[in-house]
Amino acid sequence: MLPFSSKINASFCFFLTTVTFIQAFHAPAKRNYESLLSMSAQTRRSFGVSFLTIVSLPRVSHAIVSVDPDRYGDKELKIATVNKVRQNVRNSILQSPTLAPLFLKIALQDALTYNPKTNEYGPDGTIVEVILSKNAPASLIPLQPAAQALKDIARKIKRTTEITMADMVTFAGAEAIESVGGPRIVVQLGKLDPRKFETPKSYPNLFEGKSSEVVTAFQESGLTEREVALLYGAIGEMEIAASTFKLVKEEVEENEMGDVDVYVPTSFGAPSQIYGQAIGRMDGTFLKTVVKDMKEKKTPSAAVFSDDKVAGWAVKYASGKKPFADLPEAYEKLMGLGTVYTGGKVGSLLGGKEKDF
C-alpha cells in the first residue's frame, strides 16, 4: 500500500494532467496552471490548495439550447410527433385566429433573449412560463392567451409522446406563418429542456416599444434589419388575416387520447389545406401599406418600420412577386440562435442543417 505522501503526489500528478488537458481547450485556464507551477513543492502537495485551484478555474460557457435530432426516435416516430403538433396548433388557430400572430411573437421574444457574448439563453421555451408568471413584465402580458394555448397543447401531446416547450414554441411560430398562407418553414425538432430554469433579468419590449429597442435586440443577437422587416412584416400580415377571418365551424371530435380523429396527412387536397383551411393570404398587403404610409409621410402601421434601414427592406420586399420568399431563412436564423447539437447524425453534430421533413 502506498504511503500517504505518495498518494498525495499521485493525486497531484493526475491533477496536473487534468489542468493541462483543460488548457488545450480553454485558454483562460493557463493563468491558473502557470500560477500553480510557480508554487513551492511543499505547497503543491497540499490537497486544499489543489482543490481551491480546481474550483477557481474559469467556467466554460455553453449554449443553453441543446438539440438532439434523434430525441423523438426514428423518422416515422418523428413524423408522427410533427403531425400531432401541427394539427393541434392549426386547430387552436382555427378556433381563435388571433393566436397566430401571438405564436410568432412568442417565438421572437423567446429567441431574442440570446446573448452571443456569453452564449446564454435563446429559444429554449422558458418564455412561456415567464409570460404566465404572476410577475410577468407588462409588455409580455398580451401574449398570455397564446402561452396558455401552447402549454395546453404540450400537455395534451404528452399523453402519448414527449415534446419539449422549446420545440412547441419553435414549431408553433412556423405553423402560424403557414396557417395564414405564408411559406412552409422546416424546423429541426429535438430541442432539449434547459438543465436549469434560468431567464434573463429583463426582456426587450419588442411590440410596444421604440423601433430602436427592437433593432438593437436583433443586432445584439446577431441578426439584422432584414430579419426585422421580414418577421414584423409577417406579423402584420397575420394580424390582418386574424381580424378578417371567419371560421366555418365543423364538428371536430377528439379520440380517447385527446387527439382529433385525423391528424395524419392525406393525399387529398392542397398541402396547405391538409391540416385545415388557411385563415388568410400572406401576399404583401401589410408591407405595401407600410410603404404607402412612408410615401405619404404618415406614421407606419408598426413603429419598427420608422427605422430607415428596416423601412428600406420593407420597400424592397413589398415590390417583389413573392414578398416573403426569404421568411423561412429569417425564421430559421432566429430559432437557431445559440443552439448546439448533442446527438444525431454526423452532419448534425458538425452543425450542418440536416432536415428530415
Describe the model.
The protein has 357 residues and is an all-alpha fold. The chain has 2 domains: 4-55, no CATH class; 65-349, Peroxidase, domain 1. Helices cover 50% and strands 2% of the residues. It contains 15 helices and 2 strands. The chain has helices at residues 4-25, 29-37, 41-44, 47-55, 75-95, 99-111, 127-132, 144-157, 165-179, 211-220, 225-244, 285-295, 308-318, 327-335, 346-349; strands at residues 65-67, 339-341. It is globular and about 55 Å long. Mean pLDDT is 77; it is low at 4-9, 12-63, 261-270 and 346-357.
Question: Can you give keywords for this protein?
Answer:
357 residues; Peroxidase, domain 1; two-stranded parallel ribbon; globular; disordered C terminus
Could you give the topology of this structure?
Layout lengths: L3 H22 L3 H9 L3 H4 L2 H9 L9 E3 L7 H21 L3 H13 L15 H6 L11 H14 L7 H15 L31 H10 L4 H20 L40 H11 L12 H11 L8 H9 L3 E3 L4 H4 L8
Parallel strand pairs: 1-2
In angstroms, what is the radius of gyration? Answer: 25 Å
How many structural domains does the protein architecture include? 2
CATH topology (level 3) name of the largest domain: Peroxidase, domain 1
Report the uncertain regions: 4-9, 12-63, 261-270, 346-357
Shape: globular
Task: Identify the CATH architecture of the largest domain.
Answer: Orthogonal Bundle
Give a nutshell description of this structure.
The protein has 15 helices and two strands. The chain is mostly helical and 357 residues long. Mean pLDDT is 77; it is low at 4-9, 12-63, 261-270 and 346-357.
